[in-house]
Design goal:
Layout (H helix, E strand, L loop, with lengths): L7 H138 L1 H19 L5 E6 L5 E6 L8 E5 L3 H8 L4 H26 L9 E4 L3 H10 L1 H9 L2 E4 L1 H22 L1 H54 L23
Parallel strand pairs: 3-4, 4-5
Antiparallel strand pairs: 1-2, 2-3
Helix pairs in contact: 2-7, 3-4
Length: about 375
């Protein structure tokens, strides 16, 4: 049999056969695929079942979580309300404390302002005092800048020291000596050493130049000025105020400044030795007070010696008074002895009188015992 491929029927039959075969093949493939899919979907179905259980568990957990969330929400609401209440109480307490603190702070602030005002007033007063003191310092500088006023300042300080250390009748101010020189102070010491002169000197210019020296040249010049000024004072005091037969064999140069005195002894010891050689003793306010106290002891001893005769006379009178007192004490002792003897005899008589009174009280019923100390005088008849 011949198949004509160009015949449309043949072609249609062939196409149908091929389509059938293709469908069969597809069915076979599909069956196999379904088998494989069934084998593959079995675990998947199992997993889906497990997933459904888990979803159910998740749903149950979600419901429990929703209940827990509601409980937590309610607890949070209650806690929030409680917290708000506590915060209100705390805010009330804090507000009260703040009010009290603010009131206390206001009182303390007012008190501090009052104290500050008082301190400011004190500072104003201190400022006024400082201003006044500045004026006084300027006045003192004016005083010390003038030689005459500076000399008067030293004399006033010397007068204050001497008046405190010595009796008022033991010194003379501005005493005139036999050579016509006027001494600042003449202390009336007994011989020896005799009256001694105290003269006030104040080499201020040389000392200030020494303190203000900036270079070695200025320092040397100031030291030369100091030596010159002090030597001039030592010479003047030695020549004017040491007089044989009238004053002591020496005099005192009073420096009214401890600083100048210390400067001389520290840096100019040769001037101090020159003063010793010239019998001029340099003293400061402190050493002058010590020297005057020594002079006070000398004056006291001299006055005690002057009064020695009167003291001896008073001692003689005192000795006579003591002798008379002794004699009178002896007489009084003798009188006391006689009085004691009389009292003893009176006591004996009193004892006897008591015994006799007791015997008289028992006279009616008891026989009287003879008294050995008494003497019985017999009664005799008249003589014929």
């Amino acid at each position: 049999m011949t198949i004509d491929l160009e015949d449309p029927l043949v072609l249609a039959a062939i196409a149908g056969i091929l389509a059938f075969l293709l469908i069969v093949i597809l069915l076979i493939v599909t069956v196999r695929s379904v088998g494989r899919s069934a084998r593959l979907t079995a675990p998947l179905a199992q997993q889906i079942g497990m997933l459904g259980q888990r979803v159910q568990l998740l749903s149950d957990g979600q419901q429990q979580l929703a209940g827990g969330l509601n409980h937590v929400s309610e607890a949070a609401a209650a806690s929030q309300a409680n917290m708000l209440h506590l915060m209100e109480q705390r805010l009330t307490q804090v507000s009260g404390s703040m009010n009290e603190n603010l009131q206390g702070s206001a009182r303390r602030t007012a008190q501090s302002l009052g104290e500050l005002q008082q301190r400011l007033q004190a500072i104003d007063k201190a400022q006024d005092n400082i201003t006044k003191l500045s004026g006084d310092v300027l006045s003192l500088q004016d005083i010390l800048s003038n030689k005459q006023t500076r000399g008067a300042f030293g004399e006033i300080q010397l007068k204050d020291i001497v008046s405190k250390a010595l009796p008022s009748d033991s010194y003379t101010w501005q005493a005139t000596l036999s050579n016509g020189k006027l001494a600042d102070c003449l202390i009336h010491l007994p011989n020896p050493p005799g009256p001694i002169v105290v003269d006030s000197k104040f080499p201020l210019e040389a000392y200030e130049a020494l303190r203000n020296a900036k270079t070695q040249q200025h320092l040397n010049e100031a030291a030369r000025m100091m030596r010159t000024a002090v030597r001039v004072h030592i010479k003047a005091i030695s020549e004017k105020y040491i007089l044989d037969g009238e004053t002591a064999d020496g005099a005192l140069m009073f420096l009214p400044s401890e600083a100048v005195y210390a400067e001389l002894h520290s840096n100019f010891p040769e001037l101090v030795r020159e003063g010793f050689a010239a019998r001029v003793w340099i003293v400061s306010p402190t050493t002058c007070m010590a020297t005057l106290n020594t002079m006070r002891a000398i004056l006291k001893d001299a006055r005690m010696q002057e009064q020695a005769g009167a003291i001896r006379r008073e001692l003689g009178l005192l000795f006579g008074d003591i002798e008379r007192l002794g004699a009178r004490v002896e007489n009084l002792d003798r009188h006391f002895g006689q009085a004691a003897k009389d009292i003893a005899e009176i006591k004996i008589s009193s004892d006897k009188a008591g015994r006799r009174a007791r015997r008289l009280d028992n006279f009616d019923f008891e026989e009287l015992a003879p008294d050995p100390s008494s003497t019985v005088v017999p009664i005799t008849g008249p003589k014929t």
